[in-house]
Fold this sequence. Notes:
Blueprint: H1 19-27, H2 30-50, E1 55-56, H3 68-71, E2 74-83, E3 89-99, H4 105-114, E4 118-124, H5 126-133, H6 143-163, E5 168-172, H7 176-179, H8 192-203, E6 213-217, H9 228-237, E7 242-246, H10 252-259, E8 266-272, H11 282-293, E9 301-305, H12 320-338
Parallel strand pairs: 1-4, 4-5, 5-6, 6-7, 7-8, 8-9
Antiparallel strand pairs: 2-3
Helix pairs in contact: 1-2, 5-6, 6-8
Amino acid sequence: MADTFNYRIDHHGSLVRPAELSAARASGDADALLAAELQAVQEAVVLQRKLRSTVVTDGDFPREDFRSAVLDGVSGFRRTGEEGPDGLVRWVAESLPKANGPLLADWATRLAELTVIAPKASLPSPAYLAATTFQPGLGVASARELGEALAEIIQAEIELLVSKGVRLIQLNNPLLLGQLAADPADPGALSFEDTLAVEALAVRLDERPEGVRIAVAPGWAAPAAVDRARAERLYGEVPADRWVLPFDQGTEAELDLVKALPEDRDVCLGVVDATAPDLEDIDTVLARLDAAGESKDLEDAAISPSRGFADVASRPLLSTEEQRRKIVLVETLARYIWGNEF
């Protein structure tokens, strides 16, 4: 699939929120918040252009966390007072969801007006939302039914985003790599088979305009060991164009995830650790990429940080300056691999 649309310098979508934006969100003033969001997105676009990113996002600045585009934009969910160790507030599904309008398309239109660089949008995957919000006895028959309803909403949003000029759409499911483990943990509300079926519904797109990629990020860290058969099933049954894989620790499991990829799928490798401020050694990263290149043509590849920098707005993983240095390193590595041909 080698062509000019690999969007080789990427990031997952979420960026560290500026202090002014965080203050505006805490104020409770809706007008002040919108103004701060617009200003922050404009500045984020400028930053990404300076850092030579080949796609541009809104940094998730208009959202509380990486799930919010869906949870805030559809009916059927209730926010609880519980919060997990990752800072994510728990939501539960009380009825099958219905969209109340576009989820990200309005912000995507604003983003497209700010730059000629390809806009990117990130959404939570339907299987992830179903697995984490389903609760028996609250009005939804099964997690599979919930996931299928969410998949229809997200698939429709993907089509709308593409019509608005978005060229890279990434679905995030932090639980999926755990299901590829050689000894997988209890899948909880959604089995592996149901997960594959739900994710496949969401990424289907009958027509892909030139340059459009639908990506899936199946998690932020590879398991200790990968079940190769499960990995091949995932790639084979979920027709995503691009797989966004962790590749920052140098483990055999990370390499196994790459080896299992079919030849006709792109890969984006998360080569720098978005959770650690220290910069990676360039020679070490390039050696890892050489190993990946033995089984996957790097002409069909992209690189990025390992995960979002602030998937929860109130819990950034790095400082703004540490984030900048990490993205600069990704751009530097891209030049080592591909020269100036981004």
